Amino acid sequence: MLGDPEFSLRAVVKRFGHRTVLRDLSLEIPRGEIVLLLGENGAGKSTLLRLLSALTRPSGGELLFRGRPLQGDVAQAMRRELGVLSYEARLYPDLTARENLRVFGTLHGVPDLAARVERELERVGLGDVPEVPVRTFSSGMSKRLGLARLLLNEPRIVLLDEPYAALDARSQGLMDSLLHNLRAAGGTAVVVTHQFPPGVSACTRAAILHQGILRYNQPVERLDAAGCAALLRQVAA
To answer: Hey, what CATH topology would domain 5-81+155-236 get?
Structure first.
């Protein structure tokens, strides 16, 4: 069952210089919603994720977290429940895989940190390279380490930007499980993807951005690749 809104966007506008990326965007994301966010390149999807993660602020309109403006102490409190996986993993290249997770876990107060770091490295298939500097990793290995970091603090709110890109089949299965488990636990997620693996069936809502405008926003039931493609064709028509 869905709860009160985690995020509320009211006539949100985002500009970068003279370029308007998001236009009059109004959207509510209730607690327990798993939102699949679709749209062509440049539609504003990644910008929306940056707004929700409090990495940038709206140029106009209102962005609320549980009914309060997403800034200051409210943003800090939100980040304690937040997990983010970006297209680029944004790791510390000169640290090892283990050190990256330990730094993240220390900053987020993860309990039983040493054991959980080893567990997540094993889960994503990096248990044999814990002392290797991340700068030597392939893009796929870096993405798997980013997934391990996401899993480490068991977030209740998850923002995923192309989470399946560069993942092998094993790690894609972990991502699928993450989405289904998050839904079962009443967690909240926004998922941006051009790939439609089995995990998208966990999504409870589909939203489509087109040139910075919200063109579609409806509940969905067990969405699959064909359904995603049909929605995109419908909006592009």
So the answer is: Rossmann fold (3.40.50)
